[in-house]
Structures are given as structure tokens and as C-alpha cells.
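Lecture 7 notes: from sequence to structure.
We start with the chain below.
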Amino acid sequence: MPLPDRKIEASIRAYAKRWMKSLDKPRASTTLGYFFVGLFILIWSTSLTNILGFDLKKGYGSLVFIGVGISLTSAALLIIRVMAMIGIDRPTRSAIMLSAVIGPYVNMATYHAWESPVISHIVGFIASILAFLISLLLDKLLARSSEQVK
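Predicted C-alpha cells for the same chain:
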């Protein structure tokens, strides 16, 4: 039994009203820190699985990889949730996560190249600060431009 045209029109209008109200809500913006943290979680899961002595191509290795990946993802989400509960805004949380990932890698790379712990710590710290500032400025700029489009 087909619906009368009035009921279809009323449901379309109700949907259109809900959709128009949803345009006023803030939208999630893409952030650099979250992307790179997700990428590094995959890399760390692979490395930790290999360090533990499991082969990724075999059954137990795949299970260990999945378990390590889920636990690292849960830890990252918990840290992000705690920062959100404290009141840190999303671009700042993303910048903190990106700087926490970039700094140690730059530190290790410079230590491997120059074998100087003092210089590698200084360079890693500076890279961490620069990654924080660049990510924060870029994310705030992208969030501002998306608000102006509305």
C-alpha cells in the first residue's frame, strides 16, 4: 500500500529540518597529529611483534600484532580523552600528539648519525617544539577556513 503524498512530503520536510539544524554544529576537522599517531601505531605494532619474536605472516604473530595494535590505540585514545576532559582543544591535542611522536624519532636519528647524546637531545627537543607549533598553526588555520566556508 503506497504512502499518501502528504506523508512523504512531511517526512522529507522533517528530514530537511534536522539536516539544517545539524549544519550549525561544529564539524570534526582533519588533524595532523592524529593521522601520524595512527601511522606510528602500525609501525610500533609491527616492530614490537618482531621484537617479541613472532612472525607477522603466521597465526600467532598476527594475533600478537592485533593485540599490540589494539592496546596502543586504546592507550592513545585514553590519553586523548584525558586531555579533552582537562579542557585542551582539539588542535592543541593533535599538536601535542604529533610532537610526542616526532621528537623521539628525530632524537634517535641524530644520535645514530652523530653519536652525541647532548646534541641529539637538543635537536629532538627543537624538532618536537617545531612540530607542535607547525601542527597547531596549520590545524587552527584549517579549522578557521572551514568555519568561514559555512
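Points to note: The chain is about 85% helix and 0% strand. The two ends are 41 Å apart (CA to CA).
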